[in-house]
Amino acid sequence: MAIDKNEPSKLRWGELEEDDDLDFLLPPKEVVGPDENGIKKVIEYKFNDEGNKVKITTTTRVRKLAKARLSKRALERRNWEKFGDAVREDVGSRLTMVSTEEILLERPRAPGTKQEEMKVAGDSLAQLSKGGAVLMVCRTCGKKGDHWTSKCPYKDLAAPVETFVEKPAASEASVAAPGAGKGAYVPPSMRAGAERTTGSDMRRRNDENSVRVTNLSEDTREPDLHELFRPFGAVTRVYVAMDQKTGTSRGFGFVNFVNREDAQRAINKLNGYGYDNLILRVEWATPRTN
Amino acid sequence: MRPILMKGHERPLTFLKYNRDGDLLFSCAKDHTPTVWFADNGERLGTYRGHNGAVWTCDVSRDSMRLLTGSADQTVKLWNVQTGTQLYTFTFGSPARSVEFAIGDELAVITTDPFMELTSAIHVKRIAKDPTEQIEESMLVIKGPQGRINRAVWGPLNRTIISAGEDAVIRIWDSETGKLLRESDKESGHKKTITSLTKSADGSHFLTGSLDKSAKLWDTRTLTLIKTYGTERPVNAVAMSPLLDHVVLGGGQDASAVTTTDHRAGKFEAKFYDKILQEEIGGVKGHFGPINALAFNPDGKSFSSGGEDGYVRLHHFDPDYFNIKI
User: Fold this and answer.
1) What is the tens place of the pLDDT at every residue in B34-83?
2) Size of interface A-B (CB pairs under 8 A)
3) Which of A63, B85, B106, B268 shows its CA 20 to 30 Å from the CA of A193?
4) Given CB atoms, is A91 within the 8 Å cutoff of chain B?
5) B18 Cβ partners below 8 Å, 6+ apart?
6) Interface of B with A in 250-269 (CB under 8 A)
7) Chain B residues touching A67 at Cβ < 8 A
8) Where are the WD repeats (chain B) (predicted)?
9) Is the confidence metric ipTM above 0.85 for this complex?
């Protein structure tokens, strides 16, 4: 039985028993070919420095950029020399980049679903920021101004699927509140009938990148959240809901990121993270905004 | 899909054109320098230096050897595609807005803007095979339409010229005599400036896009209105897929921003419609500014869009694009 002996001879003689089993031979390299997502796995077996058998799985994503079935003339053109401003091919110029975002051909949605929900969330958040009087907040569905957690109509759900039945009421409340905010100053951009263009654009855009964190401990405050989420990217705003009477946190808060990707990473990493004796729940502030 | 972003232009894009084989993409922008890219991976091949004004339009000959560009510096230049050298310059009294090679590449139709006392005009020039024999004079000059003529193209067999512009009327002219043959119906036609026009692959119908937030599909021979596609935004650019029955519209600012839709950066989208059913199939977001140029690769498997943001985005379709059903 010819045994391949290129392994390093660090094995102690006592372990040479493996000679008899075929364990001494490494299993062959496996290639799990590109599946429909283009994911290819190469599974190799090696001996590491301590002489233990290790399995190394390399997962790569095979992407075919474009099927270049070029005509003969096109192939010739491929070899043309660069001219004009392209002569000095600065490798660092990076004029041509593949987008980091996956862009889809988005099918049209029925009006009155996603778009309006986002508006409501934005307005409610704005309300919160002005420290409006008694805001009923429900932890289950995260909606503000409607019902307490115990009275949540969506008790059984972790988060509501569609909330646009409630929307008309909520949106009225949120639109009315800025005006009737008991003498609270309403900036011109927030007043009823105001032309909200870039001002609200900026905030809207930010509120798209809003992350809701629930199951916070009582002592958690804004700086804590800021510290916790800062590693993922620039944070424009943190808010922790406080109980006015006791001065403790009500267990949830919001973090607004500048970039959506940072927000997504934060959600991925921190959801389920143990923080100050409680397991955090981190998700998008509105049902998955697309 | 992962679009390829090409930022070769410092100023807004004005026009995009693929060559016949679909391996080169020519982009024109307000920055005076038309650029050519490889259409598969977006790598830049070269730039054509020489214009002194915004380049509004371009067209490439069928053998991809010659490029015609029209610019606001009142010239139309003929270039060697491969080396980037200028072969000839036609001078006009006003900015050139649209150029197109005829079938056979021996003629070209050029439109010029109204400027001071000059009215807008459509010129037909003969393009000699040998640039040294090129003559400056036009074979035919058509004057007539009021306002800017944004686009003029050749009709089937080069017998007619189709023009569309600021006065929202599409006109068909005889290419030899310059006589007006047909005009689009005012009632059913566009109501505002027609910004763009693109022909189908076989030339039997063409699509116009207008600032009146609609695009219309017309028959080339009879100029009857076949279809209308409505959007919420003024249409700056239109394109038709040569492979499937899709039309794509690219546009501009929301004039009415009352209902705020999502405000992420990158929300300007190219909208896809089913050509026959007139229904929206979907949108491809990503541009940071209004889309000014759209072009489909002749193989129908990719398309590119150019925006006010100076980016050209080249999209290769995912396999499921070809299976879209309404």
Assistant:
1) 999 999 888 899 999 999 999 999 999 999 999 999 999 999 999 999 99
2) 143
3) B268
4) no
5) B24, B25, B26, B39, B295, B296, B297, B298, B304
6) 257, 259-265, 269
7) 301
8) 6-47, 48-89, 142-183, 187-228, 284-314
9) no
